[in-house]
Amino acid sequence: MADAYGNALLAYFKGDRKAKVKVESNIVDTEYWKLSEFFHSWDNMSEIERRALKLCKGKTLDVGAGSGSHSLWLKENGIDVSSIDLSPGAVEVMQEKGLDAQRQDFYALSGVKYDTLLFLMNGAGIAQTMRNLPRFLEQCKSLLNDGGQVLLDSSDLKFLYDDDVLSEMAEEGRYYGEIDYWMSFRGETDEKFDWLFVDFNSLKLVCESCGLKAEKVYEDSHFQYLAKISLI
């Protein structure tokens, strides 16, 4: 299995400060992301990240934890946090940092409960598609203790399209926030993956159909928002 993303994280973690990961998608031009963006401290985190971390409580699972920056802050501030990611390289970085990190598919988790499920860096993306969003939310429900919460961020990408394109997508049954991504690092390319950017109103409606309540905690000027989801 290719692990371009994880190997890029490892390279930076081991001292290669010039390492960049190539990111391609079906909607925007190719980008090269600096790895420092994945290793940011509290002072360099966005308002959404800070608010989400401050809301974490009890036994917490950081899903898609990457380099572990959020998990590390939680641990240092007394939160009982575990971290999972599909990338072997990311997990190695987190373990080197002293975090309780495992390579684990979120959808395969069972038999354990949490007070907080944390999904950051457009955490809603793990749902992959609008069609799969109910499955994602049902899995969250199965892992929550009574009084538990899901904290996730996402963005409304409607601003990227004109009205004609949006109408065409709607007629074809396509949701405008479903994106295909590829990541590459030094000749290695990960498999294409689906990533969902969901507007808050759509998220709220699907939550309600799954017996969940969604609250918008914060929204910035770039249509990015933080949502808190809890059992009804």
Task: Describe the model.
The chain is of the alpha/beta class and 232 residues long. The chain is 28% helix and 30% strand. It has 7 helices and 12 strands. It has helices at 4-13, 47-55, 69-76, 88-96, 133-142, 163-171, 200-209; strands spanning 20-25, 31-34, 60-63, 81-85, 101-103, 114-119, 144-155, 178-185, 188-189, 193-196, 212-219, 224-231. The strands form 2 sheets. The chain has a 7-stranded mixed sheet with strand order 5-4-3-6-7-12-11, with helices on both faces. Strands 1, 2, 8, 9 and 10 form a 5-stranded antiparallel sheet that branches. The radius of gyration is 17 Å and the shape is globular. 38% of the residues are buried. The mean pLDDT is 96.
Mean pLDDT: 96
pLDDT under 50 segments (min length 5)?
A: none
Helical content stands at 25-40%
Query: Which geometry do the CA atoms define?
Result: globular
Order of helices and strands: HEEHEHEHEEHEHEEEHEE
Determine the structural class based on helices, strands and strand pairing.
alpha/beta
Secondary structure: number of strands: 12
Rg over alpha carbons: 17 Å
User: Reading side by side through the largest sheet, how are the strands ordered?
Assistant: 5-4-3-6-7-12-11
Strand content range = 25-35%
Total of helices: 7
Note the quaternary state here.
single chain
Distance between the termini: 40 Å
List the main descriptive attributes of the protein structure presented here.
232 residues, alpha/beta, 7-stranded mixed beta sheet, 7 helices, 28% helix
Task: Please render the helix and strand layout as text.
Layout: H1 4-13, E1 20-25, E2 31-34, H2 47-55, E3 60-63, H3 69-76, E4 81-85, H4 88-96, E5 101-103, E6 114-119, H5 133-142, E7 144-155, H6 163-171, E8 178-185, E9 188-189, E10 193-196, H7 200-209, E11 212-219, E12 224-231
Parallel strand pairs: 3-4, 3-6, 4-5, 6-7
Antiparallel strand pairs: 1-2, 1-8, 7-12, 8-9, 8-10, 11-12
